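Design a sequence for this backbone.
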């Protein structure tokens, strides 16, 4: 058996590692690009997004006349949700409001994003109150989305857990 010197072994190892790295990165990059492209084509269907949302306001607020935009999350306190459940439901409400305002009033969305995406959490004690607040918000031209629980954990299926209002 021939003795190979250390620099030759080290150089061979480095070249092998770099070759494997770049080949692997190229394969993963192409797969990831295709997955992202496929996902975007599915997600860009605005009609599908509108079907998932509650009714949208007909009036449009002029973002230039206001500042200090906030997204308000109204949580039902009568359901006895844990803090984790509340956090998850608020996340759903935030996303629903984001989708709604993106369709209805993208200028307000930009202003809210630019101003730091402020959020306010409030509570109410009944579904009736939640629906009343939603109707008021819609009448003022604000997106207002309720979240209905799927019923897989703590809450009965179809229960409205959180109302997101805004941003506005």
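Sequence:
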């Amino acid at each position: 058996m021939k003795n190979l010197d250390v620099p030759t072994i080290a150089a061979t190892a480095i070249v092998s590692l770099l070759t494997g790295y770049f080949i692997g990165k190229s394969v993963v990059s192409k797969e990831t690009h295709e997955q992202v492209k496929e996902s975007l084509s599915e997600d860009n269907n605005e009609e599908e997004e509108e079907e998932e949302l509650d009714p949208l306001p007909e009036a449009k607020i002029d973002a230039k006349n206001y500042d200090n935009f906030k997204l308000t999350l109204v949580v039902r306190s009568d359901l006895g949700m844990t803090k984790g459940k509340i956090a998850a439901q608020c996340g759903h409400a935030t996303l629903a409001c984001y989708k709604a305002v993106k369709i209805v009033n993208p200028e307000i969305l930009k202003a809210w994003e630019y101003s730091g995406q402020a959020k306010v959490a409030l509570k109410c004690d009944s579904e009736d109150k939640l629906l009343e607040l939603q109707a008021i918000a819609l009448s003022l031209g604000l997106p207002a989305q309720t979240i209905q629980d799927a019923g897989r954990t703590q809450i009965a299926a179809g229960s409205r857990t959180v109302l997101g209002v805004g941003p506005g």
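The beta strands are 70-76, 118-124, 144-148, 160-165.
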